[in-house]
DNA sequence: ACCTGAACACCGTTCAAGT
DNA sequence: ACCTGAACACCGTTCAAGT
């Protein structure tokens, strides 16, 4: 009998920063309703909506704290399979998928969080780890850092875009969906022969943006692989030159 | 003396769909204030805020109309330099940059528009054109369509992300900026040697997300180039086989 | 037929008052 | 020290009333 009262409000929880953040994150998941307002948050906590202001300066500060928690969860999930430099591709793919999955569990938060920076320790060491992996694979440090940042931006941006669609009310979602289906179904073959030919695939991709993300990720990583190959070739070339010069030097000396 | 009255409201315009959309788009640009509300829109039109409801069912319908206009502008700008299949890379780069530029001129609209679909004719023919170019470069039609969709999603997602930051109030922007600078400046070298080494570059990339976009775009297109090479090689292989079989057939016949 | 203005529900936020 | 509840400014939207 931990519960008391007959209201629809959730169990009364001690109002701490952590309890508030936890409740707020819960509200952002589809099961929690997918909307974050002070009114709903107050009900979830069994307290007055404005009580939250005793622990957070404003909504922005609350969102920042929520984001930190979510990022830490994503990083923990992502770095589980931190494989060696020879398997950088699988590692990066796994990390990107983990971030996306954790974010899409709370679309309403993902939309709010994607822009904001959270300077958490665990995130920092994860970035260091990724740079190390790419560097170990053959990329100069600066270039490795660039690739890490690109992957992060790319993943967050596309995830946020998916989240934004999930947050739309059902009506708008249906409107968008219908627009695509109808449009691609009615394309005149003589004016748009190629679109007509690929309409089925394009409709499929629209319905499932996880697939688009996988394709983009794979294509992007192909580009990274190319950078690594080039870097290795360059390194091999300079080493060969150095060896030759050394040989020449010893021959002359 | 076209102007009259002493209010801060703009010139009184005949209330048509086009006039409303034009005014609304203007409000979304930084010069226009960068915020779209019915109140501000009414003032801009010199009419009662609720007068807009005589021409648009709700705000969503207005945003859809605004998005259509902006997309058409972007497409017009993007297809100016539609070069041949041999220069697909420059064409796609130009298109992506054009879309990004047009969207970032009205960050407040970009944020609202990025998810919504607008089935405009001019957009359709632009997509057909891009698929044709990639197909001409050697990609099978379906794969060309996939690449087109990937590029579009990628560009819109990253552009929307940049727009979301521009829409943040100055205070939050400064907070984010400070967070990055401080964090990367204070990283202990012994724990984060690689991050310490690339801190300057990472800070630069954070400050200038146009640069990140260019890098991602280039890396992604490297991946597309690889797909094209593979497709060409595959095609050459099957053609050779067919020729050999034809030769064998004629030798046997 | 089109525009106006009062009204409503909802949002984030403030502040004086309670315990 | 922490929570409550009335109040405020602002938002999108509705609707009866004007012309």
TrEMBL record, chains A, B:
Keyword flag Transcription regulation: yes
Record-annotated DNA-binding residue ranges: 37-56
Pfam families given in the database record: TetR_C_1, TetR_N
Gene3D superfamilies listed in its UniProt record: Homeodomain-like (1.10.10.60), Tetracycline Repressor, domain 2 (1.10.357.10)
Presence of keyword DNA-binding: yes
SUPFAM superfamilies cross-referenced by the UniProt entry: Homeodomain-like (SSF46689), Tetracyclin repressor-like, C-terminal domain (SSF48498)
Record's keyword terms, sorted: DNA-binding, Transcription, Transcription regulation
Domain HTH tetR-type, residue spans: 14-74
UniProt xrefs under PANTHER family: HTH-TYPE TRANSCRIPTIONAL REGULATOR RUTR (PTHR30055), TRANSCRIPTIONAL REGULATORY PROTEIN (PTHR30055:SF151)
Name by which UniProt lists this protein: TetR/AcrR family transcriptional regulator
């Amino acid at each position: 009998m931990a519960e008391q009262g007959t209201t629809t409000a959730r169990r009364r929880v001690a109002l701490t920063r952590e309890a508030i953040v936890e409740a707020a994150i819960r509200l952002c998941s589809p099961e929690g309703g997918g909307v974050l307002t002070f009114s709903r948050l107050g009900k979830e906590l069994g307290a007055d909506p404005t009580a939250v202001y005793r622990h957070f300066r404003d909504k922005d500060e609350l969102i920042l704290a929520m984001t930190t928690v979510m990022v830490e969860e994503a990083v923990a999930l992502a770095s589980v399979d931190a494989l060696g430099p020879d398997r950088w591709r699988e590692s990066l793919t796994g990390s990107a998928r983990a971030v996306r999955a954790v974010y899409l569990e709370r679309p309403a938060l993902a939309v709010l969080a994607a822009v904001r920076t959270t300077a958490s320790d665990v995130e920092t060491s994860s970035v260091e780890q990724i740079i190390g992996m790419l560097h170990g694979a053959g990329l100069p440090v600066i270039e490795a850092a660039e690739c890490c940042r690109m992957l992060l931006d790319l993943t967050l941006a596309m995830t946020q875009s998916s989240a934004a669609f999930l947050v739309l009310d059902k009506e708008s979602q249906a409107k968008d969906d219908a627009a695509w289906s109808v449009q691609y179904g009615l394309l005149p073959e003589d004016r748009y022969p190629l679109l007509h030919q690929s309409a089925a695939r394009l409709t499929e991709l629209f319905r499932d943006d996880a697939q688009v993300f996988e394709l983009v990720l794979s294509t992007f990583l192909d580009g990274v692989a190319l950078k690594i190959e080039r870097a290795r070739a360059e390194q091999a070339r300079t080493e060969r030159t150095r060896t030759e010069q050394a040989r020449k030097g010893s021959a002359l000396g």
